[in-house]
Amino acid sequence: METRQNVHFEAKPPATEAEDAETVVRVVTRMADLDPDAWDALAGDSPFLQHAFLHALEATDCVGAHIGWEPVHLALFRSGRLDAAMPLYVKHHSWGEFVFDWAWADAYRRHGLAYYPKLVCCVPFSPVPGPRLLAKNDADRATLIQSALKLTRDLNCSSFHILFPTEPDHAALEATPLLHRSGFQFHWNNAGYGSFDDFLAAMTHDKRKKIRQERKKLHKLGVTFRWVEGAESTDADWDHFYRCYADTYARHRSEPHLNRAFFAALRETMPDSLVLIVAEKDRGPIACSFCIKDVQRLYGRHWGTLEYVPGLHFETCYQQGIEYAIVHGLKVFEGGAQGEHKLARGLVPTATHSWHWLENTEFREAVDRFLERETDAISHYMDELDGPFRREPPG
């Protein structure tokens, strides 16, 4: 293998008598080298899989070999046409993935083995379920998986991981030796609510009362909110958001994964997918949350505040997002990874998935046993959570 740009995997086309087109799988290290329209036709409606989103990460240096996120996307061409693809990265750490394998890496280290580099199919810094095997049929999905496994060996990676895939990826993955891992997030589902009050009426008394009290306190303090659509946003709106976003990281003594240029690129290339929720007080902005949307879902991504106000976090990050979803007829609000505290805000546990292949046989078997126990524990945990809604629909 001379350079990753020159890696070619010859792959057999689907087994049909009429198909005689040449099929080749290539490693592509820059989204800029792939046709945006052809990629987006495979990616579907998910804004996180759009060419513009993934290209913006690369063009603004939010991902790259220098920070341990080296793009090695797989692209399946048939007669020169892009027919399937996989967003893929060589990783030299496990930051920004949200499917935690630090214990696996530590076990490798303690046995004198290298866990990094590893190969990861995901959307960087975005724990959002969505398609990962961008193909029109299971045969091409299987080809992508086999090509990724070959690349794992060719690049001397310890392992291959697919994070947060959804149907129909699972059918193709279940036919492989990859190990399945269960997880969960908290999502809000729209039960046909006509207003935020209708949503509150469906909650238990204690949780409904707490949200109403928090909103009333914010109102008395003079806190107001405005929803800013990406196409109507200004430089000042984004400067405020980024200041809040960066401050959140600074409070935890770390650096933001995403830079100001990245958000500027999104505003330019996919403004209709962006929403800012701006909190204001005394005629000035004090907090902000950043969301991405498609035709059915609102995705809560990042937030920050320049002033501590009790209840501001929950209102800016969750309740305003839920109200926006109700007003705009969206079916789901995804509040991001982790956080049992979201349950009290009307978000309920929702299963997520990942798939894993470890080259080392002994570690693969050990991880398989671990995942069996972990899956049972997660299932019991989700069953035991006390839901935020009344058992009977409101009258």
UniProtKB/TrEMBL annotation:
One protein family per Pfam: FemAB_like
Top-rank taxon: Bacteria
Listed InterPro entries: Acyl_CoA_acyltransferase (IPR016181), FemAB-like (IPR007434)
PANTHER family from the UniProt entry: ACYL-COA
Name of this chain's protein: GNAT family N-acetyltransferase
Originating species: Thiobacillus denitrificans
